[in-house]
Amino acid sequence: MEFLDEAEVRSLLTYEALLPAIERALTDLSAGKIQQPVRTVLRIADHDGFFALMPAVLDDLMGVKLVTFYERNTALPTHQAIIQLLDAKTGEPLIAMDGRLITEMRTAAVSVTAIRLLAPRNAKTLAILGSGVQARSHLAALRLVRQFAEVRVWSRTAANAQRFAAETGATVSPAAEAAVRGADVVINVASVREPLVHGAWLGPETLVCAVATVTPDRRELDDAAMRAAVVVESREAALRESGDIAGSGQPIYAELGEILAGRRPVPEGRVVFKSLGVAACDMAAAAVVRQQRLSAVNR
After folding, report:
1. Range 109-136 average pLDDT
2. Which CATH class is domain 119-277?
């Protein structure tokens, strides 16, 4: 059985192909066309790590992502993953591939789908909290669908923020509050355990993409920031996994797929898109890679 390493995945996966696949997956997930349980997470307490199992079945494919998150990794990526695809009709293993880049790109693609749909049409200012892998992938994907007159970046490490700004044309903000105040869209990809984004900093129509925390014991938004229309990928996953939703008690307005399908209207006022990552999107991305690989082999 073929295994594709990260370099091979990178050569086959583009945001242009990924974005429509992610939109379809989110729509099908909300319509009940994709089978997907909430991920199983094993904590590796001795090493401050997490090991998660994320299966899904979509159309004639089924698959699973095995993903790890080791926050203290410095020589290695904090997120690492393997994805296995199988034939849903027979159970036959089809192809395996490195999942780190897929995780990176599908996370950004989901946020971009939300921003395209939910951000104010006249949005001009973007704030990115964090300056690592996800900050770069989000901005690269976002520039395919939206143009901002001003992009601000904040990072705990000033040198990293300066490097990001030099590479992307962003402006460095000296503090998270300075980056967020007056921004039309805020993307938080800075890993935190306690709220970083405060409602007092946000405008009445700001869209916040909260991407950084995926466990029920962590928060990235305070209660005031959560007083908004909350949109998620999966209600079931969000109610079990999101510390921001559980801690604030804020109800979920809609799944993103429901709004994409027109079953729920685009909310007015401030919106929080709480992204946790779902297997349906990983499998959709892996399916794109597999199809591109088959096309390349058959040329």
Report:
1. 97
2. alpha beta
